[in-house]
Model the fold of this input.
Amino acid sequence: MVSLPIPKFLKTLFDSFPLLTYPANPLPSRCPKFGTAPSLYVFTTPEDAVSGNPSFNPSCLKWQAYLKFNGIEFKTVPSNNHASPTGALPFMISQQKSVSESTEMTVIPSNKLTAWIEKHGYSLEEADMDSARAKAFLALVNAQLRDAWLYALYLEPNNSQDLAGVLYCGSSVSAVSSFLLRQAKAGARQQLLQAHPGGVLDPREIYASAGDALEAISTILGRDTWFFGGRDPGLFDASVFAYTHLILTLRWHSKENALLRAVMRHDNLLGHEKRIRDKFFPEAKTPDPDHRLEG
Amino acid sequence: MLELHIWGPSFTLPSISPQSLSAIAYLKLTQPPTAWTLIPSSNPLLSPSRELPALRDGTIWVPGFRGIIEYLRHKNGRALDDVLGREERADALAFGTYIESVGGRLLDLSMYLTDENFDVLRGAFAKLLPVPARYYVPGVLRREARRRSDGLIPASSVSATDPTTPLPLPSAMTAAALPATREKILAKATAERIKQTAIAANFLQAIQTRLGKGEYFFGDKPSSLDCLAVGYLSLGLYAELPNGWLREEMLTQHGQLCTYVNGVRGHMLGDGVDVVAVMSGQATVTTSSGQVVDGGLPWGIVEPQYVPQVTRFLLNRAMEMVGITSTGRDGSVRGEEEQTQEKKEHEKGMKSLQRWETAKNMAVVVGCIGTFIGYCVWNGLITMELGGRGKDKVAGGVTGGIGGRDDDGEKDAENEMELLEGFGSAEAILGLGDEVNKAFVRGVNEEEREGKGGFNQKSSESLA
Done:
């Protein structure tokens, strides 16, 4: 290719206006800053996020508690499902300094958290989660206890207005929040219908099976400190704590608190909840005894 | 007499659904054969909870495996699990739930969500169901299975309909593109199979560990956990499906479980069942060759209910679409629960709230239909029809000269009257005034009379 000579006058013109590359603009100040501590994105209030208090969502609280069991330093960030790459909370963003000094950010969804924790946490002497029993009892928590939780929170009319509506569907525009609540209720109903293909949900049956599940869980805990005789709390302890703690601390409507009464029946589960709360969430809300008596 | 309604038999097993099989096993173990009959009705809409299996005792319907156990415990004063200790009972519940949730999803995956197996399953359902139902029920069940298994498997197991990696369109399938596509499908099938097998192995291993070397899960006596295990595992083992990954996994890797199922099948589920004989009500008759076809189960006869079944199905679908769903409407099951005043009041409050919800939904629907009709009237769609009829009348008048046409005209008018009345009753349901309707009909009557008058005149004129 033949290069065209630039005319003299153009060259002088360009020389007087040199091409300048400015340095990149700094990120806006509202941008999240990733420190060295990984951040766990959970459903929580901004105040609770600062003090590291328990999330109000069972699956978030489960991982929050399990991370604390493993002695991992992290901070919680209030978020919602729309922020998550998988569409469900919690997820974690951790930043690590790699060898080449360039920082590397990894997003860990909840189903990969176990592996991540294994790599970064202390090695605990917890019960073996691969054992057949642990799997079976985890199914009990994830099926029957979860169903009853969903029913109590979203489908009991008063609870859904006063608890689910406020916790999950808070929006300054009332039309938006009522629409969100409607969506959340439909989602919860869909989940419940998986176990009830007929489409008929009988609250007594749902609560009764949750009661049976709690009875069974309480039986296997027995007088042990942690489940399955582990020396440290494990993932199953976190799963149970996530439900019992929230069931005990949420302000259920006094006539729709069947789940609370079912938990109150088992002293060893109450003790288990208190042990974890005292040790790992010292600033958490304590269950309110006056409120309990109302039921 | 207890009636156990179930999904009908197939694959030589007395039922095609694992829950039904478990319920059969439980009743066979606890009830004397004269006390119950097995009815392969295959119609979940019979029971108020719209689930099968369901136990009918007189007017009381009890749905589901656990519901049935609970009911029989109340009725007989004892249950199969009474001999178990506290910890064993906790184990029975936990493992039972594990089998129901994970095992159930595995069966869903194997039977409903593997395409070639679903085709076979559709054939099996065709033997159980009457003509209209056999076309839509398998689809409904498949949809349910997909809804249940969304947490366990990625969408890719629904192989051909995966939206993320679209297959080339048939028009683009040139000879060169074909092998590549086939390879892609093959690779995907292999990946799928590995994933499925991993899930299955995980599940079966846990169950086998719990079972150990014993004859039953808890010592030498069967329990409710055995019923569930037999129900779910036997369907995995005996269902002969073209893509039998679950069966292969059981046979090759978990022989101990197969031995267990083979061993207890005889007295928990009966021996082989002849599907055709059972469905035609011939199961209780011993065939001339002396072969028992009922498999040792007290089969009953299904009362055919085609029209109500289809109507209820359609009604349910319509209600589902509109968003009206029933919640705990059946309160008859455990009536003996003590009810304090407070509880009753609360329930009343709940009911009124639910009623309010339903009323709101109904109001929205009625409002929409009303708006649509209003729009039609305003837009002239309905007046156009009235105009059309006027034209008919004139046409009748013109051709009225020919004899015998008279009758037809009258008949038409009658038909129209009926139509309008139908429309009127629909309006009454929608809550529109009766006056409108009456005025409408009156108007039509007058028109008709006029028309007839004109008609007669015309015909007499033409005669003259």
